[in-house]
Amino acid sequence: MILAPLLAVGLGAAAPDPVSVERAFAADARKLGQWTAFRSYAAPNAVMFVPQQVEADRYLRGRADPPSPLSWQPVVSFQSCDGSLAIDQGPWQDSGSRLGRFTTVWLRAETSAGRRWMWVYDGGETLTRPLARAARAVGRRASCTALPANVPDADSREQGFLPPPDAPMPTAQAHHSADYSLRYAYWSDASGRRTFRAWLWKGRAWQLIIDQKIAA
């Protein structure tokens, strides 16, 4: 499997940061309806987990909004050097007692409406204890020093950048920003347990920033 780049174009003009967009996304879910907001912010090729992997466009098409939407807040945002890709994480809650952690991957790309951030991956996990909230999310940007080139598949597999060979398709995916400074991969095993991993370029090597294993 070859790592697939997530390409963004026309990044010269200023744009809202992904944390601001994440907060607007969450606010619209409460104001306009959960699935209405999901549709509005989704990229055409977005995937989500409900809990199985589905194509967001197909799953969300015509789906009625739940009466009580989820709420969520970003507490950390990892961003590529070129500003085209970001991964946000933070706590989510429903109207009852369920809570957990969300992971949103954002791509900044050119659309017919102009440059904007769109989510391409949305996944969450249920937790038994709430995550700490933060008044301001922590932003961590990849180093722009000595940006890496692509890594051969064999080395990528050894370093964990690619899903294991026995991971079922199409649930096994690996992507990176156009400048290779932010990478992520996800896959499921036969039991349905899901893994999500992400790496940030630190100037001399990649740092594993997320190693998330979600129960079936």
From TrEMBL:
**Where are the residues of the annotated region Disordered?**
149-173
Record's superkingdom? Bacteria
Give the protein's recorded name: Uncharacterized protein
**What is the species listed in this Swiss-Prot or TrEMBL entry?**
Sphingomonas ginkgonis
